[in-house]
Amino acid sequence: QVQVAESGGGLVQPGGSLRLSCTASTFPYGVLYNMGWYRQAPGKERELVAKITSSGITYYGDSMKGRVTVSRDKTKNTVVYLQMNSLKPEDTAVYLCAAQSPYGDSSYWGQGTQVTVSA
Question: In Å, how far from its chain's centre is CA 43?
């Protein structure tokens, strides 16, 4: 069983930055999983923020494109980061991390970390 945990959320002023971290406990059979960041605000659907594949290709959702960067730790491939800059109040949401099999047969989600952007 893969456990996923996010950290780094908190309260930040508009225009500020945060770096979120996501750690997966393991990848079954040594397969490098894709890792994705999603967010969900109250009353809204969950949406993709950013994703990094097992081969290092990155994808970004439209809502935060240009303001976020997803990366994988160079020494621990079970750890990924989400650097968020120029944050806006509308970025307030629970940010969730998912470890997703590159074969599409399994995915594991964390509990999420709250990000609140407010003056």
Answer: 20
**Dist. CA 95–CA 7, nearest whole Å:** 9
Task: Quote the pLDDT of residue 28.
Answer: 85
Residue 34 contacts residue 52 (beta carbons within 8 Å): yes
Report the relative pairing of strands 68-72 and 4-7 from DSSP bridges: unpaired
Task: For residues 11 and 34, give the distance between their C-alpha atoms in angstroms, rounded to a whole number.
Answer: 28
Contact 92/113 with Cβ under 8 angstroms?
Answer: no
The residues pairing with 47 across neighbouring beta strands, listed in sequence order, are 39
Distance CA 74, CA 95 (A): 22
Q: What is the pLDDT of residues 46-74, one digit of tens each?
A: 999 999 999 999 999 999 999 999 999 99
Give pLDDT, residue 22: 98
